[in-house]
Amino acid sequence: MNVPDDTAPSWTAQDRRLRRLPDLAHAGAYVVDERGRIVEVSDQAERLLQRPTADLLGRDAHDLLHRGRYGEALPRSRCAMRQPLISGGSAQGEGEWFERGDGLLMRVAWMVTPCRLDSGETGALVLFHETPASAPPPHEAAGATASMSQLDRLALLAETTATLTASLDVEETLRQLVHLVLPLLGDWAVVDLLTEEGGVARATVAHHEGGLVTYRDDLEGPMPPVPQESPMPLSRALRGVTATLVSPQTYQGPPDSGIAVIQQELFRATGMHSACIAPLRGVREVVGALTVGRSGQPATFTTADLLLVEDIARRAGLALDNARLYERQRRVAETMQRHLLPQLPTVPGLQMSASYRPAPRASQVGGDWYDSFVLPDGATALVIGDVVGHDLDAAAGMAQVCNMLRAYAGAEREPPSVIVDRLDWAVARMAETTMATAVLARLEHRDDGVWRLHWTNAGHPPPLLVERDGRTRFLEDGHGLLLGTGIPTVRTDAAVDLPPLSTLVLYTDGLIESPTRSLDEGMARLSRYAASLAQRPVGSLGDVLIDRVRPADNDDDVALLTVRIPDRPR
Q1: Residue pLDDT, tens place only, 435-485
Q2: Gene3D superfamilies in the record, alphabetically (predicted)?
Q3: Cα–Cα nearest to 557, from 405, 355, 381, 417
């Protein structure tokens, strides 16, 4: 049932109209598919949940709605409504909690029963209505951790591990950490992180009140350096020493450091009367400290609470360490990609622009590339290519293929098919097995003012020609076998005159391919959007096409090269 939001389908307005359930008098209704995603919603469900249909369709119902009675994320092992979804049976109950769109909790009675979806799959119909109790009284929430059983604590730790390791983004990990500890353990959460430069930054100060989490930006920001000899709890936690129970009295004496001064201000500003401070430890080093505090909840933290916070902090530290490592690798990869992709030449009369987007869940580098350079005889070479894969190996292969193609194309004047045939021979003999597709085009400006394109295609999606009036056609001639197969082949050239003010779009398959749609659908979508943007400035055309055309479930990088032909002089 656990499906990340970024894999959820993109629901159109038509989808929303079709996926309406009839209203019942007092109950809301929605349907989930076999993975737990909401696929149909009634108007009454919208009203009860105070969430528009657009925020419901395609989302995982458990992650979006189900909460514990104190607003905490509910472990799947404790969710009674999930059991009939797994077993395929029917069940009903009451006393479960949904989080509404305004952040408040709603206590519901419910019934779940299997149903058949239009796709033929088995889903489940969920009926629910609000029961009188709308939220736990503050005095009950104050004793939340005291009443937690050992099984509940283990379930919370398991949910912490599963939730925090699901993301490799530091900001998202911090947001999930806050959601896990508030309001179940306290009503304040503070995260201080050690920076890569050796400093300290207060990254998060979050407060839970009235069913909502708010962030105190005024209390966040850079911090003084960590004093190495200070016995104060936060300083010790940032050095990785130990977790500590803290109260305002801890910081009432004369401050021994700048961090102690800021801690005094934190307790004054938040009104916390009790807190736990625990180190966030990564694999090799301490990454920061977690503070969970109580101001509105009257109960003070106990040693058992401190041990639980320390366990959560240990898991959070590993998740943050992994996220930081990923972000460092991503920065290195992005720098590498910027250096691998070339600068476009300046060609009188031509307008050119290039765009590149990495694979969403890869290492930010890949095998897609574009290129353009002026040939010795004055013609302009245009290249779009794709080495199989989207990782560092693909990027390394791309760099070799790109450089070889430049060398062969600049050696002497030859048709594109001859150059690509020579490149194919070289790629098949590279030390590392490499497969690639590419289009090599030669753009000439003739004496009569006509711009003529000669090209050959080695297994790549065909270029798209968009005329000024919006007419489009794919240049499908000159197609041949991809590079690196080692199979002898006869390559051909094709040629076409490019109309004035037309736009040539060369792209990689990540722009049009989708596991849920045919290639023809992707090409038709590209053609339709490109036609609507026929007169858009070239400088922004590539990015807009990627934003609008690239399928939401695409998992490949995209390179795109656009060329605008000038108008003929009168």
Answers
A1: 899 999 999 999 888 999 999 999 999 999 999 999 999 999 999 999 988
A2: 3.30.450.40, PAS domain, PPM-type phosphatase domain
A3: 355
